[in-house]
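Q: Could you fold this chain for me?
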Amino acid sequence: MPVRVIPISQLNPLWVLLDQKVLPFIRRLPIVGNSSFTRYNWRGWELADKCRSHQEMGDIWVLVSPFRNWIDINDLEASNAMFSRGNNFIRPF
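A: Sure. Below is the predicted structure, expressed as structure tokens.
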């Protein structure tokens, strides 16, 4: 399963206030410019990304942050299995 790591949680209150203001400057840096940090570490990335991540990594991949891990599933059978065994999986909200 492919893994993408972001160093700051998307749910960090300070980052929620600053992400849209700081990321345009970070994207200009040559080392960090086009990385998982700038691609996945802002509110609403999934709307801009659409299905591109699944096309690159496959039906199931993981986004890892210091606060929480997200499993992104694009497989109906895997989704049904996960929801039918709901007590085995922790849901964030």
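A (continued): Residues 12 and 32 are 20 Å apart (CA to CA).
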